[in-house]
Amino acid sequence: MFGIKNMFKVGMFVGGALFGTAGVAILKSKDAKGAYTQATAAVLRGKDCVMKTVSTLRENCDDIYEDAKDINERRYAEESEKAYQEAKALVEEHEAATEA
Q: How many angstroms separate the CA atoms of 4 and 38, rounded?
């Protein structure tokens, strides 16, 4: 009735159940909990390091952004002054031409 295939399947099931039960017991052990705690602590330290780097990067980006805004404001002011001087020169030239 039971063929070799069926016996193999039953054996695999029983072996898996035993391995799973033993695995759970191992995972609940004091040594395993200590390893989980150490791994979690390492992850938290890594997170702190990453957050410090992100904060520094964000500060640098804010500084770059503000410097770029200042550069553009100066450039716009220079362009505006240049356009004003050109317009003033044209008006003066036109007034001189109409007076003569």
A: 46
